[in-house]
Amino acid sequence: MRPSNRSPEAMRPVSLERGVARYAEGSCLVKFGETHVLCAASLEDKAPGWLRGQGRGWVTAEYAMLPRATHERTRREVTSGKPSGRTQEIQRLIGRSLRAVVDLRMLGERQITVDCDVLQADGGTRTASITGAWIALHDCLAWMKARDMLKGEALKDHVAAVSCGVVKGVPVVDLDYAEDSTAETDANFVLTGSGGIVEVQGTAEGAPFSEDELMALLRLAKAGCGQLVELQKMAVA
């Protein structure tokens, strides 16, 4: 059995709580087991400078981890003057994932920024962030639509993400930290509600993984993201 006593295909308990940030146009507190992330979407009535005059908007993301989100305090990145390479990579991933399901032309010359702040980390912070960020984005777009700021449906599909890996020779889904830190293969999958693949990140920590193992991980990811999309649908119904 896994350290959490789950079967290989079993996700951790997942919850999506909307409207948790009073001032944000959209927000969600997402929990994947003991990983908790606050996602807040903010609307700006202007596009980035490099997009101005093109008649379309932009969706981007920022990611951060609170100092005591982990077992030991980590230094706030603001004190070092710039985000780490890991932070930049994750927030770019979140932004790409959200833009994959948004018609940017529908936004007009506006920008939506989704801030993903990790309150507590136990593996899978980036996948939880993407899944919760979709809820925050959905509610921000609904806020805009209620004020006649949108002339149609800007959101084309759901998007969710889950981690998978090979742990002690067994493909498993939704790794917590105990598994993530010892996995022979670690991967993250970002999938749309219709089954499209937005991004796959896969790394062998030791011996290379096989094509059969990759396909086994993809099957687990499809099932896991399918469950997450159903939870998203229930949350915004």
UniProtKB/TrEMBL annotation:
Entry keyword annotation includes rRNA processing: yes
Residue ranges annotated for the Exoribonuclease phosphorolytic domain, each copy included: 11-140, 159-223
Alphabetical list of CDD domains matching this protein: RNase_PH_bact
Catalytic activity: tRNA(n+1) + phosphate = tRNA(n) + a ribonucleoside 5'-diphosphate
PROSITE patterns named among the record's database cross-references: RIBONUCLEASE_PH
Family annotation (InterPro entries): ExoRNase_PH_dom1 (IPR001247), ExoRNase_PH_dom2 (IPR015847), ExoRNase_PH_dom2_sf (IPR036345), PNPase/RNase_PH_dom_sf (IPR027408), Ribosomal_Su5_D2-typ_SF (IPR020568), RNase_PH (IPR050080), RNase_PH_bac-type (IPR002381), RNase_PH_CS (IPR018336)
GO function terms (MF aspect): 3'-5'-RNA exonuclease activity; tRNA binding; tRNA nucleotidyltransferase activity
Keywords, in A-Z order: Nucleotidyltransferase, RNA-binding, rRNA processing, Transferase, tRNA processing, tRNA-binding
Superkingdom per UniProt: Bacteria
Listed Gene3D superfamilies: GHMP Kinase, N-terminal domain
Positions of phosphate binding: 86, 124-126
Recorded coiled-coil stretches: none
Biological process terms in GO annotation: rRNA 3'-end processing; rRNA catabolic process; tRNA processing
Chain's role: Phosphorolytic 3'-5' exoribonuclease that plays an important role in tRNA 3'-end maturation. Removes nucleotide residues following the 3'-CCA terminus of tRNAs; can also add nucleotides to the ends of RNA molecules by using nucleoside diphosphates as substrates, but this may not be physiologically important. Probably plays a role in initiation of 16S rRNA degradation (leading to ribosome degradation) during starvation.
Family: Belongs to the RNase PH family.
HAMAP family noted in UniProt: RNase_PH (MF_00564)
NCBIfam families associated with the record: RNasePH
Quaternary organization: Homohexameric ring arranged as a trimer of dimers.
Official protein name in the record: Ribonuclease PH
Lineage, opening ranks: Bacteria, Pseudomonadati, Pseudomonadota, Alphaproteobacteria, Hyphomicrobiales
Gene name for this UniProt entry: rph
